[in-house]
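JOB MANIFEST
job_type = single_chain_structure
chain_count = 1
residues = 289
[input]
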Amino acid sequence: MKLKATFALLLIIVAKFSFAQKAKSPFDTTMYGRNPAVGKYADIRGFKMYYETYGKGEPLLIIHGNGGSINNFLYQIPYFAKNYQVVIADSRAQGKSVDFKDSLSYKMMTDDLNALLDNLHLKSCYVIGWSDGGINGLLLAIRHPDKVKKLAVTGANLWPDSTAVDPFVYKWAMNMNKTVRDSIAKLKSPTPEGKNELKLLHLLSYEPHITVEQLRTITCPTLVIGGDHDVIQPKHTMLIAQSIPNSYLWIIPNSGHSTPVYKKEQFNQVVSDFFAQPFRRIDGEGRFN
C-alpha cells in the first residue's frame, strides 16, 4: 500500500478537505502542473525533470516542498507571472519528475535546480521556496550563489530535531517514517513507488544538515518567513534570519506552515515588495525609524 506522509502532501490534503465542504478543491482542477501548452521535460543529471514556465520579465524560480509538486503554488504562479518569468519544476522523485534510483538528498535537488537554470540559460533569478523548497533555496544560495538574486523562504529548517521542528510534528514524522519503513520491509517485492515514499520520508526525518556558518556565506538579500504556529519553531526561523548577513524576518501572526495557501494575499504582496525594493540595511540611529 502506498502511503503519503510528507509535510506538503499532508497540508494539501487538509486544504482539499476544507474546500470540499463547498466545492471541488482548486488543487484538483488547476492547470498548473498539468498544462500541456507550457509543460516540458529537461534531461537533468540522470533523470527527466518536468517544469513549466509562465509570464515574461526577470526570471523567478519557485520551489515546492516535500512530496509536493508545481500545483502547490497555484496562488503564486498567476500573481508573479504578471511581472516575472516564472520557472517552476517538480523536484527529483516528485510529481512528474520520476526518479526511482536509491539516493535522494537536498544537495542533489539543489544541484538539479542549478542545472535546470543552466539548461534554460538563466544566469541568475529571484527565488521563492516553501518548506523543503525553502531548504533548497538556502542551499542554492550557498552552493550556487551566482544563481540567486534575491531569496524568499518560508517554513525552512536547518537540521532535523525538536529544537527546529515542533516536538509534536517531529514525533509524528519519526513515527510515520518507522511505519512506512516497517510496512515496506514486510513486502517480498517492494514497489518502486513505495521505495520512493521512503526516500522522501527519510529527508523529512533525518535531513537537512545546514550549519549557521554556511548561512553566513549567503550574500543575496533574503526574506525569511514563518508562521507563528508553524511546524518550524519561530525561534529557529529567527535563527536563520539572524545568521544571514542581508536578511529580513517576517513571522506571520495566526499562521501555520502553509503561508502561501492560507495567507496568500499577504504572502504574495510582501514577497513582491521585497523583490521590487532595494534591500535596506538598518543599523545605528536607523533602528529608531
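[summary]
Residues 167-185 form the longest helix (19 residues).
DSSP finds eleven helices and eight strands in the chain.
exit_status = 0
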